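User: I would dearly like some help making sense of a protein record. This is the protein in question:
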Amino acid sequence: MTNVNVSCYLTGLNLIIWVACGIIATGGALCFVELATVVKMSGGEWAYIKEGLGPAPAFLAGWMNTVLISTSTAAICLSSGNYLLSAFYGCGGIPVSS
């Protein structure tokens, strides 16, 4: 358990929220499955937006995906890596090479 869960004493509530988020994520995945069966184009999200809204919104969505979502994924990976490494180095911090 993380420090937040231990200090809050709300393990049951945390599990309920975790299950609810899992149900929402499953619903989103099922929506993409339905779109994939209806739209017979490759390209994923871009193809669905192009089919529904046209080429200009699909182009903008593709660029926003490249610029915003890719960079936020990199930031999430870096912070997750630091969090996981802290388990090995403890509270003293991760050594930084100069």
